[in-house]
Design goal:
Layout: E1 5-10, E2 14-21, E3 32-40, H1 42-52, E4 56-64, H2 65-77, E5 84-88, E6 93-100
Parallel strand pairs: 1-4, 2-6, 4-5
Antiparallel strand pairs: 2-3
């Protein structure tokens, strides 16, 4: 079967920093049970999904600063090519997300 070729353009990448807690109490410390960091941004999420199904995808985007270095490493670990990522002077953004305990983690 011949695979299609895809290109994703990613001009707003981010490090998704996900925190998982068993409970959240107002006016109290939130105890984090698990923390997971992934290379994110809509186009990179699509690329990760397509790669899981054996599709050929090239990603074009930007990354910068220390977060950009970590971002590229995480992409490589996800088998996403960093060949067409442009290095910029600005820091790649972070998105912090908090999740309550579920069966998902």
């Amino acid at each position: 079967m011949r695979h299609k070729k895809f290109i994703s353009v990613n001009l707003n990448p981010c490090l998704d920093v996900n925190y998982y807690a068993e409970e959240i109490k107002f006016d109290d410390v939130v105890r984090i049970k698990k923390k997971k960091i992934e290379a994110g941004g809509k186009g990179f999420n699509v690329a990760r999904f397509l790669i899981q199904y054996g599709e050929n995808i090239k990603t074009i985007g930007i990354a910068g600063g220390l977060n950009g270095i970590r971002f590229k490493k995480l992409l490589t670990e996800s088998r996403i090519s960093t060949e067409y990522l442009l290095d910029i002077s600005a820091e790649t953004r972070e998105s912090h997300n908090f999740f309550l305990k579920t069966a998902q983690y």
